[in-house]
Amino acid sequence: MGLVNTFGVRYLRYLNNTSIVLHSLGIASFAVAVVAAAPTHQSAKDVFAHFNDATGDPGWGERASPAYVACIGILFSQYTLTGFDASAHLSEETHNASRSAPYGVLMSVGVSALFGFFLILCLLFSIQDFDATVGSEYLQPVLQILLDIFGENGAIALFTLIIVCVWHCGLFSITSNSRMFFSFSRDRGIPHFFHHVDKRFKSPIRTIWLAVLLAFLLALPSLGSSVAFAAATSIATIGLYISYGIPIMIGLIWHKNFVKGPFNLGVLSRPIAAVACLWIGFITIVFCLPSLNPVTSQTVNYSCVAVGIVGIFAMGSWFLWAHKWFTGPIRQIEAEALGIDIDTPGALEQLEMEKEKSGAAAYANGAH
Fold first, then answer.
1. Could you tell me if 1 and 145 lie in one domain?
2. pLDDT tens-digit profile of 153-177?
3. How many domains does the chain have?
């Protein structure tokens, strides 16, 4: 993934188109094939009304309530609905970004929800042996469903399609994260060393491999431990949604200072923002709760600790030193219009001085 992002940036749009086809037509065909080939099917009652508590013995459904199990069970569903902000991270490389980026966000969520729900229904109706599926020796219920229906060769072929789709997701996660790191380094949020675009390959190679390294390190604890994997997923989901929620809440509270762009939700903006903030607050609490019973040092959910450490570090660094030099995002187009090369030392200070001069001149003209 890092190599493709490094040397094949010109091919990313073609890979993106391939990914769209795979995730839409490919997955739709996959789902239809599973239902059509299944020798038997589960009843609608089994699919929509059967409750399975896999949180231990006794499970949290017995110790607390089935509602508790249902709440903590939405973790992986919520995790799949992350990363839709990738359109925003790539907006500087997008034509008509003020409209294209928001539409990209909406389309990614809408299409994922539609095809994802269809796929899940097809898989659930096609389960041949429920106990064998949830207790699969391969630790992959979907793979077990495919084995029961298609046999080994057919299951490998179809599961390969899933792996290819996941590979494309990882590829564009690296693309999105590298652009985010690049922008943050330009804004002096992380070392300026990472604000570099390779002249030959036209890609931010340093931030690409920073994203690859961090993804690799964060995945290591999950090897061989379902609890660690669930914790890593919780941390990723909570962290992303908190980052989504902060600007939404700021816009909700200080809406009079919010400048609307070409794309906006009009009168529905504040109600939708309020619902979004409530939902983010809810899942932040839920995903910090223990998911396995009994709760021990090996099964406790450490997500709240990890998120708390990151939050304390972020707030502490801001109040101790970052507020003295971090002035927010730098608009590269604005800097170029003023004849300032943001790659040169002192460019940030020069840009701020030019902005102050422009503001003072505008005020003086208004006074006259």
1. yes
2. 999 999 999 899 889 888 888 888 8
3. 2
Tokens representing residue 246 in the block: 């902060």
Looking at this protein, which amino acid is placed at residue 141? P
pLDDT digits (tens, 9 = 90+) for 258-275: 878 788 888 898 999 999
DSSP letter string over 142-166?
Answer: HHHHHHHHHHHHHHHHHHHHHHHHH
In order, the DSSP letters of 131-145 are HHHHT-TTS-HHHHH
* Domain-embedded: residue 16: yes
Q: What is the pLDDT averaged over residues 122-151?
A: 91
pTM across the whole model: 0.75
Buried residues in 291-313 as b, exposed as e (16+ CB within 10 A) = bbbeeeeebbbbbbebbeeeeee
- Specify if 313 maps to a domain: no
Residue 347: give the domain boundaries. Answer: 332-367
Residue where one domain finishes, among candidates 222, 249, 282 = 222
Q: What string of DSSP letters covers 346-361?
A: THHHHHHHHHHHHHHH
**At residue 337, does pLDDT exceed 60?**
no
Domain boundary among 206, 222, 238: 222
Long-range contacts for 330-335 (Cβ within 8 Å, ≥24 apart)?
330/186, 330/187, 332/92, 332/186
DSSP classification of residue 188: T
What integer pLDDT is reported at residue 299 of this predicted model?
Answer: 75
Listed residue (233, 186, 229) closest to 81, CA to CA:
233
